[in-house]
Automatic annotation (TrEMBL):
It comes from Actinomadura spongiicola. It is an enzyme of class 2 (transferase). Gene3D superfamilies: NAD(P)-binding Rossmann-like Domain, Spore Coat Polysaccharide Biosynthesis Protein SpsA, Chain A. PROSITE patterns: ADH_SHORT. The record marks 21, 28 as: Transition state stabilizer. The gene is ispD. Belongs to the IspD/TarI cytidylyltransferase family. IspD subfamily. Belongs to the short-chain dehydrogenases/reductases (SDR) family. This is 2-C-methyl-D-erythritol 4-phosphate cytidylyltransferase. It comes from the Bacteria.
Length: 472
């Protein structure tokens, strides 16, 4: 995209944090969420934006090589500099301004963004760049849901009107000439200290209006340990709530691709196999009943994969929906049934992962496993099933790390109660409106397979937890 009106926009990613608030020796921007470092996620947002022409990364000086690795993994072609940050936020901004010395001050826009806000939306970037056509300084903020109090020695001295208060986020955007002028004046003040760049403009260029762009609750800053868990869940919810592709987009993404599905004779496996085949993928379905393929037997798995590879010369997606659900107290279950449950529900994913990896490494492919809502807390009467599903989640997360350098993705679908023959056999007939359909789960599964996610447990629900509405 050509720069708007001759202006170029440079995104400056501020990644100088040390991770001390987390109690870590590694900067928090290098921690992994949703299968990638926080910095990779943040870089990817700006790389994808048609409004961004160039990206600078200002990194903790001791981790410049790590930042360069993140740039490479994220495939960022817009990054033109990875530079050491300063000892403070203000010093880091000044280093960025120094690096921008050869950029024309009146036709360059700069967006300063916290590296640890990886959930930034394209809408906010677009709104900031649009606002800078008319304004010289732009902030991003959201209303405060909490009452803010002002204290002096732990005693309330004022309660400002909440309607006038906002919670500041990033990016903060400026014409390069404006932020450069503000910092030149600020450094002449021996008492200069500021926590963000808009406050520098507000204090040292008081006649310059700072326009406020609406932010987003999801544009959170990962600062405390609990933020890691919240951000991770937001990535999961965003992926499961992603809009479906068009018919042509599905067909384009699946053309010439090979998918192998274990457990393909019924339920979710059958629905996914039919869906992928309808959009042009070569699908090879295996099951106990239809092909006498036992997913818990390594030789059967190896033979199935070899057959698909021999026929098409590639394997892009491997899916395992095979499972067994035995209801009953553990002390009353037959030992043979225990062994079968463990082999099918846990050893099968392991055997499939081991056998599939060489094929997927050649194509940068994707392994998809399935868990159950019972993985978060073991359920009485099906302890074997719920514990195996918890193990599958841990397997997914561990392999995502192991395979990241090889370009192989692995994710795990966590559907709510779903109408499948396995569930009906275990629980009998249930009211249809209380269950997901296999087609719903299959559609989300296909979206995940075509995404860049890895290491995620993606919830599929009848109602969208972000809006309270029913999912399609």
């Amino acid at each position: 995209m050509a720069p708007q009106g001759g202006h170029r926009t440079v995104a400056v990613i501020l990644a100088g944090g040390s991770g001390q608030r987390m109690g870590l020796s590694t900067p928090k921007q290098l921690l992994k969420i949703a299968g990638k470092t926080i910095l990779e996620h943040t870089l990817g947002v700006f790389e994808e934006s048609p409004d961004i022409d160039e990206i600078f990364v200002l990194m903790n000086p001791g981790f410049l090589n790590d930042a360069a690795d993140c740039v490479k993994k994220a495939g960022c072609t817009k990054v033109t500099a990875v530079l050491p940050g300063g000892t403070s936020r203000n010093a880091t901004t000044q280093l960025a301004l120094d690096a921008l010395a050869d950029h024309p001050a009146e036709t360059t826009n700069v967006l300063f963004h916290d590296a640890v806000r990886p959930l930034l939306s394209q809408r906010i970037i677009r709104d900031c760049v649009t606002a800078l056509r008319e304004h010289r300084a732009v902030d991003v903020a959201i209303p405060s849901a909490d009452t803010i109090i002002q204290v002096d020695e732990d005693v309330i001295v004022d309660v400002p009107r909440r309607a006038n208060l906002r919670r500041g986020q990033t990016p903060q955007g400026f014409r390069l000439a404006t932020i450069r002028d503000a910092y030149e004046k600020a450094w002449r003040d021996e008492n200069f200290e500021a926590t963000d760049d808009c406050s520098v403009v507000l204090r040292y260029l008081p006649g310059t209006p700072i326009y406020v762009v609406p932010g987003d609750e999801h544009n959170m800053k990962v600062t405390e340990p609990v933020d890691m868990f919240v951000a991770d869940k937001l990535f999961q919810l965003a992926s499961s709530d992603a809009p479906d592709l068009t018919e042509d987009e599905y067909a384009g993404a699946l053309a010439g691709k090979t998918m192998v599905v274990f457990g393909a004779s019924q339920g979710i496996g059958a629905a996914l196999a039919d869906l992928a085949q309808r959009f042009g993928a070569r699908v090879f379905g295996y099951s106990r009943g239809a092909t006498r393929t036992h997913a818990e037997r390594p030789d059967d798995v190896a033979a199935a994969l070899a057959q698909a590879y021999s026929a098409t010369g590639r394997i892009d997606f491997v899916v395992n929906t095979a499972g067994v659900l035995r209801i009953g107290r553990l002390d009353a279950i037959d030992p043979e049934a225990i062994e079968e449950a463990l082999r099918v529900n846990y050893l099968a994913p392991i055997h499939i992962a081991r056998a599939a990896f060489p094929y997927l490494a050649k194509t940068g492919g994707h392994l998809l496993l399935y868990t159950s809502s019972s993985y978060t807390r073991g359920r009485a009467e099906y302890s074997l099933y719920s514990s195996a599903k918890a193990a599958t989640v841990n397997l997914t997360q561990a392999l995502a790390d192991e395979w990241s350098a090889d370009g192989v993705r692995i994710n795990c679908i966590n559907p709510e109660r779903t109408s499948t023959p396995m569930r009906t056999q275990a629980f009998g007939q249930e009211p249809p409106h209380t269950l997901l359909s296999a087609d719903q789960v299959a559609r989300t599964s296909l979206n995940v397979l075509l995404s860049g996610l890895t290491g995620q447990v993606i919830d599929v629900r009848r109602e969208d937890p972000l809006t309270g509405g029913r999912t399609s």
